[in-house]
Every structure is written in structure tokens, then in C-alpha cells.
## 1
Amino acid sequence: MSSSFPSAYEEQLQAAKLFIEANDHFLVVSHLNPDGDAISSTLAMGCLLRCLGKSYVTANEGPIPDKFAFLPECGSIVDLSQLSSHPDRFAKAIAVDCADRERIGQTQQLFAADCALLNIDHHVTNTRFGEVNVVRSDAAATVEMIYELARYCNVPIDLELANCVYTGLLTDTGGFRYANTTPLVMRIAAELLDLGVQGNALAQQTLETMSPAQIGLLQRALASLAFSADKRIAWVAVTAEQLAETGAANEDTDGLVNYARNIEGVDVGLLFKQKSEREVKVSLRSSDHADVSGIAQAFGGGGHARAAGCSIYASLPEAIEQVVRKVGTALS
Amino acid sequence: MSSSFPSAYEEQLQAAKLFIEANDHFLVVSHLNPDGDAISSTLAMGCLLRCLGKSYVTANEGPIPDKFAFLPECGSIVDLSQLSSHPDRFAKAIAVDCADRERIGQTQQLFAADCALLNIDHHVTNTRFGEVNVVRSDAAATVEMIYELARYCNVPIDLELANCVYTGLLTDTGGFRYANTTPLVMRIAAELLDLGVQGNALAQQTLETMSPAQIGLLQRALASLAFSADKRIAWVAVTAEQLAETGAANEDTDGLVNYARNIEGVDVGLLFKQKSEREVKVSLRSSDHADVSGIAQAFGGGGHARAAGCSIYASLPEAIEQVVRKVGTALS
């Protein structure tokens, strides 16, 4: 099933294959603040190049979340501290999971002046910034496209490559739960399990394990859980002090808003994250019944109907009061 | 792929098909305290019978968790309050997801004296209590086997049946995360998504939505989170008073122990659930590094290496002290 492609996409895969075959040494990069798909795609591309007898270096501005350190070769990704002393400048680079060139960040320092780029990405906003572009916005994850490229290049899928692909699929589909979980995603996952991937261990490692900072933050956020009078709005808040005392990284607040949104009967869930005494970042999530993008826009922010965000320049209690009132008006 | 079966299993499917074809009116039952697979299997079997032009009644002793009420026909499952007044006594019954006859509970009141049973189940401990038995213990869920039976009977898989099967797969694999998530499970899920199942909405409904009681309990449990000195043991506790004030049902405490177990660096996670002033139920969960079944046994309980339980007849602080000390000794 993954060996027959629509012809326009197959042409892109063919161009990528030629790009790789015609060269010997590559830099593989992804976006700064990498997520599971960015890291998995970087490492999966490394596996693919190695199988094709090519040499390569992987690099990422970082920071790389600790929970992906278990992936083989994750430790050899060149990081920010190693960039300036790195001896190589690359004439051929492969950017994975980057919607535009800016997202690559500082690892572009390793590009030679005439560096030619192969751009492999699934973002609908991709700017086709490469000399060769492989873009399929209905792919759930970029790693799904790298799996397809490996199949197209007749690269045998070893367990290392399979683990990378499964990890990227898991993280970009929220464990096969988001709406991007297509039949193709499930069929690829089945093939990877056939190859020996321990899906249970990967899910545990990448989706379920929480750092002490994350659990400390969840504890504090839930202690703050509050509801509007009609229980249609629920919110949690974390103060700047709590963020500091738990040692939380930026991504550690990611799932908190869902605890508010996922409560039965709640139409809008909110997370208030205090950045400083007069700045609060707000995440808004809604069920089917509400569109939160307009609310975020009213506060100078933006986003989608179900997920939006804004910043409020006020104290935490003032920010909560303002946003909850606005959401209440929108719901009524 | 799901149309070719090992011959011994195909014989069982054939016997089930004959059982259904040879009769016209059926009672479909599952186990008391039904979970997602029990309910989905009951309703999926109803769909299958309807497609084959048979009449049927579904029944369950209950209680049926509210979160499955969205499934079509869930409301027509005959419940405990309706049993004694039900006019029918059934000569043919189909038990789904029941390891033994006792698990069927009080709905057996609806069996005629000479009632013949078709037993469809995936539990390794199944006692083959039916006149016809379809048992495959490597199936992730009983609903997976009902899907196979539907295919075997050439029943067209409509969206209602597909939704039931996807729901049962989701709940019995923990959202495609447990070790029972086989390649076959993923291929069936792919087929169901092809048929129009909205996997995202089903996952939201059955796995992510929390009742006010559940979130209230999680809040209180996390507030109690504590660690051993070496941070290899983490535990949460809920008091009898907290269980009462949140209005928590028995199943609402189910996932709490995982919050303790899933913390980075923790080898054993514990949940202490106070039943009364002198009784505490303990759930023990471990990572790869520890076997908790022996610890549970030492307290008169039992279970598996990774998941076990016991009851301690002591106050809550005493129970915590005793079990944590024993786990500490086992780990060192």
C-alpha cells in the first residue's frame, strides 16, 4: 500500500532519491525546539542515508527533550554548543519537518554558501524553500514521508529506522488519537510492529513518562482548577514562581490545558501561564460547541477554532477575570 | 488479512455461524461491571445479529459507565432494574467477553432452563462454558473477534458496527498503547477508519474525557503525591472521605496509580485507596526493574509482576508505612 503513490508525489520522491544518489555527504537538520517528529525524522533520515552508503551529520539547535535521548544516535546530533567549532561546511543539506527556512535556526551556520537543500515536510504552510521539495500536507508526520522515501528507495527497514518512524507517528498523532490518524498511519504502524517495534515501550517512553517537573506542575495546575458558574468553562493556572520552583521547561506546560478542556460538560478549557508580574500567556481549547480563535484575536492573539492562544498584559487574577468573562459572553 | 484464519479458529467461527443461522431469537450478555470491550462487544453482536435478520435482546447487570452512553443502542441494554419484570426467557444466549459463567451475573435470570450458550471471549482463563466456544486469547479485545465473526459471516460492516469495534479496541488497548496492540489490531483499525470511523472523536469520548468526580479525585490524589528518599517509589493516596465527597465510582480510581508509576526514575508506583478506617486497598505498578507480585502476596494479595494488589487492614498512614517499607526492601 505504501509502494504506490499519486504521480505528483512520486515525482517528488524520485527527485529526492536522485538528490541523495547524486551526492555523498549530507547535513540533516530539523526545526529548533524539536518535537518527537523533528527528532525522529532527523534520525530516520540518518538511517536511510547510512543504508544507502552515504555519510552524514545530524544537527539541531535544540534543546532536545530528555525523553528522546533513548533513540539510538540521538546523542550524536550536533547541538548549539558544538556548532561554532564544527569543522564541516555542507554543500548538501536535508531539512526535515521545517515549514520554512527560518525554522532551521542556527544550524544553518553549517551550510556552505552554495548549499543545496532537500526539504521534506508535512506542514500545510511549507514554503518550498528547497532546491528539491517533498511536501505532503496530509501526512500525519514528516517521519511518515521518510518511511515512504525509504520504501521508494528500496531501503530495508531495520529496527532502528522502524523505531524512529513509530516514535514520530506516536508523538505527532498523540498516540494515534488526533484527527490526523489516517488509515495509512495505522497500516504503517502495523508494518512497523511486524518488524519488531515494541509499541508499548515506545508509547510509555514518549507519551506516558512524566518528568518530576511535569508532575509537579500538573499537581499545582490541578490544585488551581476552577469553573465558571455554569461549569461550561474550566481553567487551570500556573504562576511564574511555580514554573521556577518545579524547574519546568517550556514544553512541560503543553498538555495542562487539556485537563481543563477534557472535563465532561466543559466547552472551553483555559490555561493561564504567568510569564512575569504583568504578562500571562493564555491557551484556549474548545470542544465542538465553541470557536476560541475569535476570543484569542480579541486579545491580540490567534489560532484555530479549537486551539488558540494570546498574551494578556495584566496580573494573573486580572487576566483570568478578563478572559473568562470574554469566553462566557462568547458562549452565551 | 482478516479473512484467512488458522483452521482451529476457523472451525470455531464456523460453529458460531451455524449457531446463529440455526436460531432466530437471542439474548446477548456480557460481564457485570462492564468495561468498554464488554459494552462494545454486546452492541457489536447486536449489529451482527440484526444484519443477519435475527431478533435479539441485550442485557447487562451493570452499572454501565456514562461515557459509553453515546454508543447507539447502549440505552436499550436491559439493566438490573428491568430484569425481574422482563417477559422473555431465552433458549439461546450469546455471552461476550466473559471468562466464566459466573461473570455473566444476574442477567442469567433471563436464561431458559435449557438455554444453549455461545461463548465468545479473549481471556486466557476462559473456561469454555458454552455449548459453542469461540476463544482466542491472543485477541486484544473480544470485539476484535466479533469483527472477525462478522467478516466470516459476510456481514457488511456498517458505521454503527465499525464504531463499536473501534471503541472496544481503543479501550482494551489503552488507545493502542498496551502490549496487546498487535499488527492485526492496527490493520483492523485502519479498515474501520476507511469505513468512516472518527477515531479522534471516539478516543476523546472514551479515553480523554474525565467526569467531574474523576478530575476531583485526580486533583486530590496528586496533592498527596510522595516519594521514598531515593525517589524510586512514588505513591498517591485517596481517603474514604475524598472518595465520598467527589462522588467517585469504583472505576474512577483506575488510572490514578499510573501517575505515580509513570514518573521518570520511579520503579514502583502505588495507590492507597482507603475503604474504611481500618481497610486500605493498595494497587502496585512497576517498571521493568521490579516484580510487585511477591510484595502483594506477602500482604495476602496477588497479581502479576508489573501490576498487583492487596488489602491492608490498618489506618491509611500505617498502610503507607508498611507497604513502602516492604517495597523499599524488595528494591534494595
## 2
Amino acid sequence: MIDDRFLYERISRRLLEQIGAGTFAVGQKLPSVRRMSALFKVSVNTVMQSYRHLEAEGYLDIRPQSGVYVRSSDVHDIPEPDGSRYPLLPVEVSLSEQVLQYMELHADPAMVRLGIALPGPEVLPVDRVMATLRDVTRHHALEAWDYMHPNGCPLFTHHLARRSLSYPVPVTAEDIIVTSGAMEALSLALRSVSRPGDTVAVESPTYYGALLLLETHQRKVVEVPTHARHGISLSALEQVFRRGGVAACLVSPNAQNPLGFTMSLERKAALVALSERYQVPLIENDVWGDTVYGEEAAAPAKAFDRAGLVLYCSSFSKSLMPGLRIGWAAAGRFQKRFRELKQLSTITSTSISQIAMGRLLESGFYAQHLRELRERLHDQVNAMAKEVRRCFPPGTRLTRPTGGCVLWVRLPGGVDTVALFQRAAARGVHVFPGGVFSLDGKHADYLRLNAGSPLTPPVRRALRWLGETAAELAAAGPRREA
Amino acid sequence: MIDDRFLYERISRRLLEQIGAGTFAVGQKLPSVRRMSALFKVSVNTVMQSYRHLEAEGYLDIRPQSGVYVRSSDVHDIPEPDGSRYPLLPVEVSLSEQVLQYMELHADPAMVRLGIALPGPEVLPVDRVMATLRDVTRHHALEAWDYMHPNGCPLFTHHLARRSLSYPVPVTAEDIIVTSGAMEALSLALRSVSRPGDTVAVESPTYYGALLLLETHQRKVVEVPTHARHGISLSALEQVFRRGGVAACLVSPNAQNPLGFTMSLERKAALVALSERYQVPLIENDVWGDTVYGEEAAAPAKAFDRAGLVLYCSSFSKSLMPGLRIGWAAAGRFQKRFRELKQLSTITSTSISQIAMGRLLESGFYAQHLRELRERLHDQVNAMAKEVRRCFPPGTRLTRPTGGCVLWVRLPGGVDTVALFQRAAARGVHVFPGGVFSLDGKHADYLRLNAGSPLTPPVRRALRWLGETAAELAAAGPRREA
């Protein structure tokens, strides 16, 4: 099955490259299915699968009785990473304490919430989770009262493991350790495989929380250029690994925050192979994995982890309820150390949350909810993207996410988005400036927008205002506000 | 008020020293109140306060119309720390991974639970907490769903702060950061004031979790001799501070685990003064503070922290419900760093637990519950102590705790209690060997027993069996089993 997906993905990617390069222009007709089948030496079905996939992604029109036409060449809307800004050398992280202030605005319920990357309560089954929690207080009172087993609630870990059954390398319940959210998992994973002063390779841009984590643990960072559609550059990463001196690599192959890409299965497998060849542990942040758009769940890089080098980290904060503070990890060959660190970090994680999650998985509710969630997030992201294209100044570029609920927006005119953040905050709109997603201001003219909630009139007004203000700032020329 | 308590405590301690030294034997009459008042130059009331206190602790009998008589001289049942075993030099912690195995048995519900230090569900208001959690799911669903404010739920921190109103230096809501249990608080406090390779002074014996924490964070340790009734030796601590090179001191002045002492207010103030004089931060683990026996809540060392050098850590795991995973810290002048570390450890702590705790404090229920809890724990500890004296071999010595629910028991004959632990585990009885509460086997012949639950027939049987087995092991002579 995986091999089939590889084939159609390979063809899709090849086609997209050609479309992006202008080989096939918008409106132009593509070769027939039969012709493609001969060209690529694959079955007619595989070609059709690829065409249908690209149609679903908005690139192609399949017109019955006529043929397949290019609909959009908007393939690489976010520019390729600028290689000259990536020396691939270890540097110390020193992100200002402002980041924590950027985060804090989320606590103000009066804000228009475009800052924190988080689906809103409108698209998450708040009532059902609350009902389940109530049920746990009634029927599992003693279990909820007590410390949970150090590895986690067995019902919960058992059902977590089940979800990996179709992976080439499944995860078993014994591999799993429940954590207090994905942040604890990432922190413990980092500490399981590295020490202060060590260097860790990361995607660039990457989740600011990961950079802060590395800073706070005195790790150095090598930023690896990362493509807005394909993910981390494997050739650059190999160059870094080959040179040596890297203790770990922190990646987020599914619906990455902020870029929204999902690496193909082929590239995930190649990433794991690279980690294995150079014996560099991979810390996989899969907190957005369950939100990758589409019918089927997206496999993580962990699915290919034969050598036990992947420390998988995830949570339910982005797909169900952040307040539960429940995440989990499968730390491969580092599990013993990971578990020791977990017990000395928070001993165990909240019992009621774990039992409730176990029940939501067991009943099939969570899987059913995800199908709906992905569709709604996809719609919301598309709606917001449309609005941004309409309201923001010419030259604005933005991602086409494959999961999650954030848009990564590059403003024209070299605007420092901290200025925009500050003005927006004063107006009751919370957005996240892009500069903290990498070092040395590489993304200082980017903005991350959360499309976790429907496009209500206040959100539309906020977007219009942001667009106008971005235009004003661009007109004033490149500068940094204090 | 504090000065008055100092006076009566000073007199009580002086009397206890005399009783312990045999100056007044059991059955003997003490000087009259009037005579004592003249001797110590204090009011008659203060002497009466002291006599009543010692009567409540079981040392004196006050017989109306007759006088005050010594009832028990069992004052220093646990021997004084052996100074020759305390070089007061930094050493690396290396406690075996067995400790985590010792802890794990707690997860087996079939065990007789004498291992983990924890009041049982019989003495904690499980139903009321569950009802409150249910209430939160109904009336605060959105708040419970979301990430909580990074510092914690305002209702909760506000009521936490209120409890310190009578302290010489009260804590304000702004000083507080909610954590995922006390372990996270201790871990963040440690990281806020020290770095790998630094040295931390600790009580000896001390909670094994603290030693493991120091090990896992690569801190060195100076063990300071600690008296079973008076607490850490302030003169030895000053010697350590004076020599320099100590980054912090980790103490537990209230109902310390495992010794069960509560430092007098005077000694707490002196401890804080010492920290201030030498500018060494104090990390105060007050997780047992709410269980100190008596009508009034015991003030922590933090109550005297004018200089902001005390990093106070507590939780509700030992006084209400461990499964909540809710603790809190007041990190004084280190609060900014502490908060940064907290956000990169678990971001925020479980929302539903915080809101529920806020409500239980607000309604006065928690305070009311504590009064009952202290009484029941005191009774249970006394009942278990009586049973141990009855069932254990001659020469067994044990503490007379002032709070909490553990007994610290020294077996005769140089028995290594790991052997007892192993035999007990095989028999379905969970106890904790004493060796892991200090380094170099100083307490290898000690055993910690949890008296958190009533003395049911299975517990009585377990104690009888433990006593018999301890006698067998003692008869077999000193040895260590693998």
C-alpha cells in the first residue's frame, strides 16, 4: 500500500514541479492518462490517482470527455528558502523574552484570536469531552483520584498504539509514555538524547516553542532550510549530519507549524534513513499530525523507525482540547531514560484527562471527530487565505497548508511584523510575528495567522485592518519598530 | 503573635531536652507553673501553653489539683545523626534505577500500600472533589477546554495567596505560578537557580525524589545532618554556606518526609536568615505543610522571606488528590526565570484541576477538610506506631511525626531493608527501603511506612509479617541481599 502511495505521490510531485516551473501554464491541457501511464511506466490507475489528488488540491481541473487542465500554478507561493542565509553552522539561540509576551495575549478572551495556533472551540467537541470527563468522575473516581501508572493509563496507551497498526513499524503500548502535553514530551526527548552545549538541527522556520526550548536548555542550533511544500532539505541535513557534532534533529513532518507542509511518505522514510545512517536521533513533533487534511490519517516519520532512533512526541491540544494537558511520546531506544526524566519532571500526568482520552479513543469518537475537524480546518484555512489575498497589499505571499490551521504570510516591502503585532495588540487583535520562528531575522517580514475559528465578522474586520496596516507599513519602507 | 509562639516553643524544647536526657524521668513531677514562670522569666500563660502542648504531644500528664508529670521520655527515639558520616563535601548523586521500581509497585492496586507516602482515599474527600470537577465541566466548559493563563487560574492563585495573609511576609497572587504538581515546581526551582555541575545542600535523610532530581540534573549534593525532631542542623548548614560554592539549599521544614519533624518558627526564621546572610537560595518543598497536626496551619520558611530568596513549592497531592497533578510555586526574585522554564516545560497546567481547586479553596471546603485530615492522619500514624512497637523486634526505633503520614523506622541488627522490601513485594506488601533517602547507605537499615490509610486487618497482618521478617533478618546478621 505504501509503495502505491509512493508512486502516485512521486508523479504528483513531478507534475507540480513542472507546473511551478511553467512547463504547463494555467489553462493548458496535460498529457492523457494513457500517455502518462506509458511515460512513467505506471498503471493507468496510478496516474488517475495522481490527477485526482492534484484536482483535490486545486491545481487541476478534470473535465470529463475533454481532458485534464492546469487550474493554478500557485505552487510555490512562499519563496524558496534563501540558501545564502543558511551557513549550516551551530549558533546559540537567544530569542527575546518578548516571545512569552506574544504568547500571553492568548489569555485575554477579548482578543480576536489570530495569534496562538489552535483550532477554536467552535470546531472542537467541547461538550462531548466535558460529558466524558463527568462520566470519569462518576465511574472511575478512585482511578482519577490516584497517581496514574508512570507510563500512563493502560486503556489510553493501548488505543494510542492501535492507531499505528498499519505503519511499517507499529508502536506498541509498552513503547508509550504519557506526558503533560507535547511540550513536556519534547523537553524530555531533548534531554534524553543531548546535554547542555550540544547542537540540534532544526527546520527553518520552525515552531518558536522549539527554539525557546533549545535556548532554555542551552543547546546550540543548526537551522536547515525548509521548503514550504516539501519540508526540510534532506541534502542540507545530510551535509550537517556528515560534518558531525549534531546530537539530534528536531522535525515536524506533518502539517508543520508554521509552514503547513506535510512531507511525503517517501521523504519521511528518507529522513529516518538519514538519521539511521548517521546515528542521529530524530525528535518528531507530531502535534499537528491528526489534522492533516484528507480521509486517511497521515503516518509520521516514526512509522519507518526500525532502529528506534525516532523520539515521537504528540498531544491532543491541537485536535481536541488544550486544557487537558495530555500528550504522549514513544522514545524508541531512549525510552528508559525518557521515563526516568518524566517521573522527575511531573511524576505522572493528570489522571482524569488520561482516562477520558482512553474512552474517547475506545469509543471511536475521536477518529470520527477528526474526519470532521480536518474538513472544517481545511475550509477555514482556505477561507482565510482567500480573505488575505483580497485584503493584503500586492506582493503578499502565503502558504497553502496541507493540515493544521495556520497561514504563514510574507508581507511585501520588508516590513518588520513586530510593528504590526504591536499595533494589532493595541486594537484587540492577537497575531504572531514571524521573526521568532527562526534566528537572525530570517522571517522578520512574516506573520502567522491562526485560522482555527470560522471567519466571523470580527475576524474579517481584523483581517481587513491588518491588510490596510501592512500596506501602510510597507509604504513607509523597511524599518524596525522598538 | 509569632514572638509568643517562639517563647512557648523555646520552653517546650528545653523541657524535652531535659526529659530526653533523663533530668526528669517518666512518672516524675515537673516544677510548678509559677516556679517555671520565674525560672524562664515568662508569663504563667506561656508556661501553661508549653505544658499543654507537651501534653498534646503525649509527653506530659496534667493532673488537676496535683501537678504536671512526665508521661513519656521517648523523645529522641530515632538516634541523633552520626556526625562522622557527614563530611559536608559535595558528592555526585548516583541512586540506582531501582528507586523507580520501588515507586512503580504503587500502581498495583492489589498491594498493601505502605510504600508511597500518601494519605489514602479513605481520608480524602474523593466524592466532593469529583462533584466539583463535574461542576466545572458544566459551568466552566470553555475555560476548562482552553490553555489556562501561564501563571495559573486567577481564582486559584488569588485564594492561594490569601492563605498567607498572616505571614510576616505574605505571598501575593502575582508571586504565584501554578505547576503540574510539586515535582515540576521543584524541578523548575532547581533549574531557576543552578546549573549542571553546581552543588546543592540537602537535609539527610531527605525525600528520594529530591535526590533523583539532583542526579538527573547533574547537580552535586552536600548532605547536612538533620535531626528527627528539630530538622536540618543550622550550624552544619552555616559551615557549608560559609565555605561557599553552594548554589542552593533544598529543605522541607514542615512535616518532613521521611522524618516527620516540623521546624519551629524560630528555626525557620533562622534558616531564612542564614540563606539571606550567605545569599544562597532556599528551595522549600512544602508538600506536607497542610498536614502538620494541630488546629492552625503551619507557616513555611517562605513566611519569613523578606529577600525573595525562598523558592516555595507545594501541591495538593498529599492533602487532597494526587491525580489532579496541581502544584504551585512562589519563586521570589527568581520568578521571571521560573515562569519561562514553566512555559517550556508544560506550557500551562491542567485547566479543570486548577478551576476545581480554586472553587474548593473559595468555598472554605479545603480548610475545613484539612482540620479533619490532620486529626485522622495523626490518629493513623499513632495507631501504626503502636503496632510497630508491638510487632517489630526489640531495638526497633521510630519517629514521632508532627505531620504527614509516614513512620521512619530503624531496624535493629544492621538489616539492609532492600531485602525486606523484596520479600514484602513478593508477598503483596509495598514498603519503601530507607537507603535511597540519603547517600552512602547511611540509612540502609531504615524503612519508611505509609500510615495514610486506616489500620485495617490486611495492614495489621502486613505489619505483623514485616516485624517477624525484620526479626529473622536481624537474627541472620548484617548483610545485603542482591
